Amino acid sequence: MNQSNDFSRQAERDWMVDTQIVTKGITDPAVIAAMRQVPRHQFIPDQESEDAYGDYPLSIGYDQTISQPFIVAYMTDALKLQPGEKVLEIGTGSGYQAAILAELVVQVFTIEIVKPLAQFARDNLSMLGYDQVWVRAGDGYQGWPEERPFEAIIITAAPDHIPSPLLEQLAVGGRLILPVGDDSQNLVLIRRTEEGYQRTELLPVRFVPMTGEAEKGIVK
Q1: Pairing of the two strands 64-66 and 150-155
Q2: What is the number of other CB atoms lying within 10 angstroms of the CB of residue 136?
């Protein structure tokens, strides 16, 4: 791929969407527009910036990664977000997924357990004007109880079980998407109904493990 001299790197972003997103079956116009809009290179450390629009995850330090663009688009698409909804993200990383969500919904609350990354994300989001995103440094296992309920919750690190506090913070009709597992992980979509929860297995994935309280392996 040719490196663009354009500060916004729009040509590279369009290339990313055309070759990695649309060709792999993502059709939602709002998700596609968000992926074209958000400057992924602004959420990546300088030493990785040249590869910002490649078809793979990248290191953002602290043993954490920014997900492959297709996975970001796929998880966002699977949530079927509506403009007026409120979303909770667990695992802010550098803030890229939160920015994509903020292109689609009215409020995003996001929690990052690694404090320097939480600040990095906060700075990135503020610089780009995403004032509807609230970043908290801390363990996301218990969610953000005072802002419940959420129409959608997205977890971008893999626990070995589904945290029950997050299930409880879903609105009826709400959706939760997350990778589940240790060595073998699957992307799982949970929908809350009046009767309970519906679970759908989507595809095999590889995410960094969810740390903190999730590591205890105890379903509460």
Answers
A1: unpaired
A2: 16
3-state secondary structure of 47: helix
164 Cβ contact list (under 8 Å, min separation 6) = 219, 220
* Reported pTM: 0.91
CA–CA–CA angle 147, 150, 153 (5° rounding): 115
Sketch out the chain's domains with CATH numbers: 62-216 (3.40.50.150)
- Residue 6 has a pLDDT of 53
126 is catalytic: no
pLDDT score recorded for residue 88: 98
Backbone angles phi, psi at 136, to 5 degrees: -120, 135
Among 49, 59, 67, 94, the one annotated catalytic: 67
Give the alpha-carbon dihedral of 99, 104, 107, 110, to 10 degrees: -40
Distances (CA, A) of 121 to 5, 80, 81, 173, 179: 25, 24, 22, 29, 21
Average pLDDT along the chain: 92
Question: Which residues, at least 6 apart from 159, have a Cβ–Cβ distance to it below 8 Å?
Answer: 141, 178, 180, 209, 210, 214
CA 124 – CA 130 distance, rounded (Å):
9
Q: Which neighbouring-strand residues pair with 153?
A: 88, 176
Percent of the chain's residues with pLDDT above 70: 95
Check whether 212 has a pLDDT greater than 90: no
138 and 168 Cβ atoms separated by less than 8 Å = no
